[in-house]
Amino acid sequence: MLRRTLVGLVAIGILASFMGMGGFSLFTATTDNDGNAFTSGNVEISTSPASAFLTMSNMTPGDSVTANLTVSNDGTLQLRYAMTTATTDDDSLHLDDALTLVIREEGTDCTTFDGTQLYTGTLAGGVIGDPTPGSDTGDRTLNVAAHEHLCFKVTLPSDAVGPMAAATTATFTFDAEQTTNNP
Questions:
Q1: Is 22 helix (H, G, I), strand (E, B) or coil?
Q2: Geometric angle at alpha carbon 172, from 168 and 178, rounded to 5°
Q3: Model's pTM, two decimal places?
Q4: Which residues pair with 175 in a beta bridge?
């Protein structure tokens, strides 16, 4: 009998422990927070006109030509830009070194040529800022959807000698980069 009682007590104890576990039940729930989206910004620079805005034929010493170029930020991020010039002479007379280039902010307009000067020197060496990544002296900053007008003036100096019947072409390259997180 003792054995039956003992087995009965053990059985009751086991059942009671299972019932006690039921007292530790947890209520749980989950929810989804979907639709989180991420896009990167972009840097896009353009010039207007897009090409051949500054030309002159049959230049003689003392002649100059002035033209306006609009630089625009067409991207979604603030940008800074630099400009470099590459020239190609069609002969060995190096007209690109004889021609002077002056670049100014527009100021009143390009005919009065009274804006802040950004560059003066040879056509071959024309630069604004530095295309090396990061903030450099002379780099220009444009906010999103902003633009600026630059005035370019190319002159064959009145004391120029030698480059007669010479020709050159110039390509102005504008390199842009984001300013955010880019010291």
A1: helix
A2: 165
A3: 0.81
A4: 82
